[in-house]
Design a protein that fits this description.
The chain contains 13 helices and 20 strands. By secondary structure, it is an alpha/beta fold. The strands form 6 sheets. It has an 8-stranded parallel β-barrel, surrounded by 8 helices. The longest helix is centred in the C-terminal third of the chain and has 16 residues, at 293-308. It is globular and about 75 Å long.
Length: 425
């Protein structure tokens, strides 16, 4: 049986599945239910200074896409609105009752040395395993000079991270905002500040929809709306891209990564781990389906690892990063073409329409004995995969390799590269 135990930045848990800092981790009651359900750890919802913030009603918006509820999820909720001491007491009890689970505490206070150094000893006294500096929230708190207002300025990230490392024995995770042009600048700043790990991504700044009757962004609060933080399955591709950039970056070194963003299944988790994540954090999926989804996630990951021969999570961590390259390093002589399985084809014609109208006119629409038939013209097929993606039948259209007989050739080697042309002059 696969061993799902993991250690990231010195923090141990029985499996890599953690609940992210969010409404599901706002109080002892929820966290205890989650840990009893089998979650390996939690990041307690972000604590701040007293007096607590005041939240609004309503708070959530969602995108339903072709019948899938909450394909994207938006929130305008702030950090915890419960007193600091109440949270600290509950964190201490939970850690005492579940000593084998990872209990991290998310923090967000004003960007002053006094504020950060004041709250850290209080958290340390709870026995928590670590802290996560919330530099990601794109709404509400950012307008107050916190959250992504710090996370978008690398100098601030480095400064606050260093303050925290000077103050606490606990591992310091830095939660990064995706609302930047390049994720490497904030990640490198966290490393320079001494961070023990980074967590990403936090939510994407967004308006998910507009109520056309009330003419206000959703969720609507008294006839008005605000931008919020976008998460859920829709943000997974953004998260994977940013995680991979950090994992392969030399300046980030071997910084451990806790992956966040649209993780809903064991496969999602495996993809994040394969790009270098030592743990994965889940929020929207738990809010959608409840805490017991961790059972399927853990058993699914274990079964997949058994089928691949991976004994531990570490054995496949980061393996996909090795094959992550810049476009210019890809083989220009590699060739694939589409193949249509006629036994599976339902003759809908979507592949032909997509290719004829928007691609390379490489799928013929034929008639054989009065019946429609779609056939690939390999001479024109560029292997773009469009037909495979639009086909509604799994495995009906597959992409097959063709031997071009030509050696590896990347863009820097290509004769059309302007740099080579200039050198030849």
């Amino acid at each position: 049986m696969a061993d799902l135990r993991c250690t990231i930045a010195g923090v141990k848990s029985p499996n890599p599945f953690w609940l992210a800092s969010a409404p599901p981790t706002d109080k002892e009651y929820n966290v205890v239910r989650a840990l009893k359900a089998g979650w390996g750890g939690v990041v307690w919802k972000t604590l701040g200074e007293d007096p607590p913030v005041v939240n609004v009603s309503s708070r959530y918006g969602a995108v339903t896409y072709r019948g899938q509820r909450m394909a994207g999820f938006n929130n305008i909720e702030l950090i915890t609105d419960r007193p600091l001491q109440v949270n600290l007491q509950e964190i201490k009890r939970v850690k005492q009752d579940f000593p084998d689970r990872a209990i991290l505490v998310s923090l967000m206070v004003p960007c002053t040395e006094e504020a950060w150094k004041g709250i850290l000893p209080l958290v340390e006294a709870t026995g928590a395993d670590g802290v996560e500096l919330n530099f990601g929230c794109p709404h509400g708190m950012s307008e107050r000079g916190m959250g992504s207002a710090v996370g978008q300025v690398p100098e601030y990230i480095e400064m606050v991270t260093r303050w925290c490392k000077q103050t606490t024995r606990m591992p310091v995770f830095v939660k990064l905002t995706p609302n930047v042009t390049n994720i490497l600048a904030p990640a490198r700043a966290a490393v320079k500040g001494g961070a023990d790990a980074v967590s990403l991504i936090n939510t994407v700044n967004s308006i998910t929809a507009v109520d056309l009757d009330r003419m206000a962004p959703e969720p609507v609060v008294g006839g008005k709306g605000a931008h919020g933080g976008y998460c859920g399955p829709a943000v997974k591709p953004i998260a994977l891209g940013m995680v991979a950039e950090i994992d392969r970056d030399r300046e980030c070194g071997e910084i451990p990564i806790s992956g966040i963003g649209g993780i809903e299944t064991w496969r999602d988790a495996a993809e994040f781990i394969s790009l270098g994540c030592g743990s994965v954090q889940v929020c929207t999926a738990a809010m959608h389906y409840g805490f017991k989804i961790v059972e399927d996630m853990a058993s699914g990951l274990s079964n997949w690892m058994d089928s691949k021969g991976y004994r531990t999570v570490d054995e496949f961590m980061g393996l996909a990063t090795r094959n992550y390259r810049n476009w210019g390093d890809l083989d220009l002589n590699y060739k694939i073409v589409a193949n249509i399985n006629q036994d599976l084809c339902i003759k809908c014609g979507l592949c032909h329409i997509a290719c004829e109208d928007t691609s390379h006119q490489s799928i013929f629409a034929l008639r054989e004995q009065g019946k429609r038939k779609y056939v690939v013209n390999e001479a024109e097929c560029v292997g773009c995969n469009l037909c495979m993606h639009v086909c509604p039948v799994d495995d009906c259209i597959t992409m097959q390799e063709r031997d071009t007989g030509r050696p590896y050739l990347n863009w820097s080697m290509h004769p059309n590269n302007p740099a080579r042309l200039k050198a030849a002059e």
